[in-house]
Write a structure and sequence with these properties.
homodimer, alpha+beta, seven-stranded antiparallel sheet, four-stranded mixed sheet, globular
Chain lengths: ~475, ~475
């Protein structure tokens, strides 16, 4: 806390969390002030790292007393700038702490995984627990967690709740919202609300827990979550199919009536080629296919025959690779999961444009076909790398080429999605990145209702200002 | 509309919905002013029966202009007085319409079932569509709806959304909340908000649809809902087991690891005996058992062997009856479903006390054992009839004996549930009935947050005043 002796708020917060957990030095703060894509960054007054709900409540109350905005931050794996401070409004560095700067509230130290209730198949975890730790704990209890995503070893449960994270299993188990029985959270004034009893049926008043899910830290700071666990699948099979395109993938998926299906990921020839260049992975098949569909089935009994039978009676497939052991499964998943780092490498020092959209599944092929042309039209020479979750109508459109602050491509892509009845954010949220396009997909009445809810729970607008809602 | 010539609001509403759809005569209004148990009743200025979302919006806007409260009403099958006017504050009948009286807004004419989207497995239905009609429409499309309850031919989707209805399949498919992709609703000023696009992933702003689910008509009037449908199970098996008590039922259920389980209903020897007296149904087994567990499994393949194997390796069972055809299945379900009418008959002209509570499943046996003694202690000679959903820790405690307005038994039962970490309302909601006990299960901070959300969306407090929240 050296260098902040003049900052009374920092002093009060240090009393609550301990001096070493208040970071004021630029080099100590640096990692908290920029998102991992490098696209979003801004200054903060200091970083506070509370370890308990009580400490969080104390910090939030102190900030409220000092009218100081707060940026809640989890694993900082978000892609829309919702977990880092906004760009500085001040003209330059100053020797004195700017009272208008926000405090970053890092939840990483709330990392308790409480004992798993195997009878109820539920667990309560702290906001700072990573998805990977939760998955491991569930596995050790003979259970599993219904959400999985590539950033599993960094993304934290608090952030995943706050953003209603999706991932690869939504078509089977739903997004975070479907896993949350209830949350404990600190409201804008420092009040703690708690719904950790684990009751599956509790129709008493508005669903505040559900309201906090996906609220991106603007209505309250999630400190703990009570989560559902699922039966751990005893057997699993993964298949990578080479297909003629998005339409073939959509058609094939519609024909498969597989209750055991847990994932249906799509990616494309150009993406696989770039992944190969970047990672050294050999191509999955001797001849490239325009599109690849990665299917995974899991259940209490071996789903291999079920998947094979379903594929036999479905549409034409160019190539098929099947994995039934964990090593070969990881090999197939690598083609999908290493897309993100490949795009990051392509972008080099700049940040790729990461546009996460959904459209009705019936329009997915049309969207994919049109969006590639549109990107070239708006920014000739741009590299577009697409992948996504076919079953959810969700494509991640990654664009490398335009300057990170040149939003012409973003505008075109988001308008196309909206024009097809889709969403400008399937699973990443609005954050700072999508704010300019909110009105494409929400009416004035809806935006007014969102603002009213925000004002009701955070009248001073101190929680994550500039995120999810303007102002 | 005869007799209301002096009521300017009624005139305006008649312009919107048509004169015959504004009911002002006492005999025409009567059915809308009392709930089906007879416990809750109150006067209204008139009843309006709009047929479209636009008409609902017009009526709501007119009432807002006239500062007149509105009581949204669906199939009027609620059990907590949330869909009928509150008791009259006036001293007696008057020749002139009392401007303080609410308008009942009956949604029964919003009865369109839109064409089912079989690819997305979704359907959009009007608020006035009964559960039974939705089930039939889904069935005709080769699909099914995930919620079922005894009042299926009267309960409407709007009311079921507004109360987050539960029913017998929650343990498999979740409550209404889990079926709702999005809703269309009219807010307190008459603004329409709509989320009927069917996008499964749409992380854009707060989940207003989810907030409206379970809000009991106090935040908006649900006019349409976009609902998920499920694969229609091709085969089904039902088993009625005679058991030694609640603990045995809980233990047995915990031992069954049956992914195909769709229902686990519990009821008791005294209830079955009373059902027999009232309905003439023969006892299920020659020798009564203290408790009965009704299990149903359904899936793509015949689950009969799976259930039999699971029961073989589970705990001791006194008696077992298995039904694999629809007639014998209905016969087994009758023991469960005819409890409600039996209790209504026992209560005669009075209304039974219907206390719907949940506790952690681990405490269900303790709750059941203690609640019976407690009821006798508070009101010696009272008849207590219990049934419920074991998997959800949800018991319906029905009490006949105390005057409907004598709430001593209610108080004791709800306090017992709360003391065991349970809820004062598992699936019926708060309505008017449970309001006095809200603070047993929600903190001051939580109640303040609920009030803030209410004020944000209905600042004049015109939507269902006196329901879910005080004031």
């Amino acid at each position: 806390m050296a260098g902040s002796a003049k900052d009374r708020l920092a002093g009060e917060v240090a009393e609550i969390v301990g001096g070493p957990q208040v970071l004021t030095e630029p080099d100590l703060m640096a990692g908290y002030l920029v998102d991992w894509t490098g696209r979003w960054r801004g200054p903060a007054r200091f970083v506070a790292r509370p370890a308990t709900t009580e400490e969080v409540a104390g910090v939030v109350a102190a900030c409220a007393r000092h009218h100081t905005p707060l940026i809640p931050q989890g694993g900082n794996t978000g892609l829309v700038g919702g977990g880092v401070p906004g760009p500085d409004r001040a003209s330059g560095p100053s020797a004195r702490p700017d009272p208008g700067l926000p405090v970053v509230l890092s939840l990483g130290r709330l990392e308790v995984v409480e004992p798993i209730d195997t009878a109820a198949r539920q667990v309560t975890v702290g906001a700072g627990v990573t998805l990977g730790r939760l998955q491991l704990a569930a596995e050790q209890a003979g259970l599993a967690f219904g959400v999985d995503l590539t950033a599993r070893d960094t993304a934290t449960i608090g952030g995943m709740v706050a953003t209603n994270a999706g991932g690869v299993h939504v078509l089977r188990y739903g997004p975070m919202r479907a896993q949350v029985v209830g949350v404990e959270a600190v409201l804008a004034g420092g009040q703690v609300i708690s719904r950790l009893t684990g009751l599956e049926k509790d129709n008493v008043g508005y669903d505040l827990s559900g309201l906090l899910v996906g609220s991106e830290g603007t209505l309250g700071v999630v400190t703990r979550a009570r989560l559902r666990l699922i039966t751990r699948p005893r057997a699993r099979v993964t298949a990578l199919l080479g297909l003629s395109g998005t339409a073939a993938a959509v058609d094939l998926l519609a024909q498969l009536d597989l209750p055991s299906l847990t994932a249906a990921e799509i990616f494309y020839a150009d993406g696989v080629e770039r992944v190969g260049h970047h990672t050294g992975l050999a191509p999955p098949f001797p001849t490239p296919s325009p599109a690849y569909l990665l299917l995974e089935c899991a259940g209490p009994t071996d789903p291999t025959d079920e998947l094979a039978d379903a594929l036999d009676s479905a549409g034409p497939v160019h190539d098929t690779a099947v994995a039934t052991d964990s090593t070969s499964r990881a090999g197939l998943w690598a083609y999908r999961e290493r897309h993100a780092e490949t795009v990051a490498a392509l972008a080099g020092a700049g940040a790729p444009h990461k546009l996460d959209v959904s459209v009705p599944v019936a329009h997915l092929a049309e969207f994919e076909a049109r969006v590639r042309g549109l990107i070239q039209q708006v920014h000739p020479g741009a590299i577009a790398v697409l992948w996504g979750h076919v079953g959810d109508g969700n494509l991640h459109v990654n664009v490398v080429g335009p300057d990170p602050n040149d939003e012409a491509v973003d505008d075109a892509v988001l308008r196309l999605a909206a024009s097809l009845g889709g969403s400008i954010s399937a699973e990443h949220g609005i954050g700072r990145a999508k704010l300019p396009w909110l009105a494409l997909v929400r009416s004035q009445a809806e935006l007014a209702a969102l603002q009213a809810v925000k004002t009701a729970l955070d009248p001073a607008r101190l929680l994550n200002p500039g995120v999810l809602l303007p102002g």
